[in-house]
Specification:
heterodimer; A: seven-stranded antiparallel beta sheet; 43% helix; B: mainly alpha; two-stranded antiparallel ribbon; 65% helix; globular
Chain lengths: 257, 172
């Protein structure tokens, strides 16, 4: 970069107008302009142009966005309508969910990201959902105790969504272990005996993610992040149905949270 | 990543509203940009600045739309409202001055126009602007120099500073 002692260039003068100079260089340019009123007048005119454009097209950050520009919605719709190979979709999810500096690169695994999260969810489903006799530790009859227990252990309010309207009834839930600490598993069942699990735990993410499909071997489900909790819903249902159920769950959780 | 992209949306709208002339086109362009960004996200280079990346996508969409439409903006026939957003803040005098400014901006060659708007509204460094516009930084600089000087020449005489009556000062 140019040090403070370099001669003033035309680029410096424009960078001054655009607020792109560091403090030291700005002081040098200001001193130069003091000494050169003709140039100063020209630069003032440029600054007025810039200010005029910025007033003509003001920053509207605080205005609500039209629905077509709500990014989470776009992401959700895009992933749904696009029947791309799962790997590519997973890459999009990971890129969105992991965030932070540098993001996540194709070919490397995100350490604590949603890919790991969905693995845990699938493992819990495989172990507990198939257990005909004892899928849960606390049954639906002890729902308030279950909710208190999970909320205490996860250290945040856990909502046990009511899915009766979808045909799935709560069997109960349990605490499960994950590498990232305690997680909760809720198990539901419909009249046909199909089991559905909701796996959730706190997840480091600075913003909600859309509902996205997950595909782990033969297991299909959906995952999303809402208020720094990761959710994964898994059941032997077609994908469209899983998405609908996930939306319902997310709505239930939001309205009771 | 998600929130970083979201945080750029107002700035994208701001630049798009200056590039284009009507509100619906603006949000359509930003919408298309976000959809394109979603598709490109998995292959995005991790070290690339998100803001510059999004502006690049949007700028390229704008250029190809423009090319497809093959009708260049009819800058000569711009009447008073064209290209000037409604509800301009400030008094009558400011409004006139800005209208004049915008008319001159719209008369600039397209590359100069895009450059000066991007620099004024995009909050990008010159290097980032060069990436967005797909040209060397030297080209950005010379476009900017020429655009600003041309605007200054064109608006000299109309540009009056000093707001209080009796304190009007003509700028050269």
């Amino acid at each position: 970069m140019t040090g403070p002692m370099h001669p003033i260039t035309e680029e410096d003068l424009h960078a001054y107008v655009d607020g792109l100079l560091d403090e030291a260089r700005r002081a040098v340019v200001e001193a130069y302009l003091e000494a050169h009123p003709e140039t100063a007048e020209r630069i003032e005119a440029y600054a007025r142009q810039r200010a005029g454009l910025r007033e003509l097209f003001p920053d509207r950050s605080s205005d609500p966005l039209p629905s077509q520009l709500i990014f989470s919605r776009l992401a959700e719709e895009r992933l749904r309508q696009r029947r791309r190979p799962w790997a590519a979709i997973a890459a999009t999810i990971a890129a969105l969910a992991v965030g932070g500096t540098g993001g996540w690169f194709l070919g490397s695994r995100p350490p604590g990201g949603i890919a790991a999260f969905t693995q845990e969810a699938a493992a819990s489903y495989q172990v507990y959902a198939v257990d005909k006799r004892r899928p849960v530790e606390l049954s639906a009859a002890q729902e308030s105790e279950l909710r208190r227990w999970l909320s205490n252990r996860l250290n945040r309010p856990v909502v046990v969504p009511d899915l009766d309207a979808t045909g799935y009834q709560l069997l109960g839930g349990r605490l499960v272990a994950s590498e990232h600490g305690p997680a909760a598993l809720l198990v539901y069942e419909n009249a046909a005996g199909t089991r559905l699990t909701i796996y959730l735990r706190p997840i480091a993410a600075d913003s909600p993610s859309p509902i996205v499909p997950i595909d782990i071997g033969a297991i299909d489900g959906c995952a999303w992040i809402d208020r720094s909790i990761g959710y994964s819903l898994i059941a032997a249902e077609p994908y469209a149905k899983l998405l609908e159920l996930s939306r319902y769950v997310r709505q239930e959780v939001r309205s009771s949270g | 990543m998600f929130s970083e992209i979201e945080a750029c949306i107002p700035a994208l709208r701001r630049y798009a509203s200056a590039l284009l002339r009507n509100g619906q086109d603006v949000d359509d362009l930003v919408h298309d940009c976000l959809i394109r960004a979603l598709d490109k996200l998995p292959t995005r280079r991790g070290d690339e600045d998100i803001r510059a990346w999004l502006f690049t996508i949007m700028h390229n969409l704008f250029v190809s739309q423009r090319r497809r439409a093959s009708v260049r903006p009819d800058t000569e026939s711009l009447d008073e409202q064209d290209g000037v957003p409604t509800g301009i803040p400030g008094g009558q005098e400011d409004a006139m001055r800005w209208r004049e400014l915008m008319r001159e901006v719209n008369r600039l060659p397209e590359e100069q126009r895009a450059t000066i708007l991007l620099i004024a509204l995009g909050e990008l460094s010159y290097n980032e602007a060069a990436r967005v516009l797909g040209v060397p930084v030297g080209t950005v600089m010379s476009r900017l120099f020429r655009a600003r000087e041309r605007l200054r020449q064109a608006t000299t005489g109309q540009m009056i500073t000093g707001q209080q009556g009796g304190n009007l000062r003509r700028v050269k």
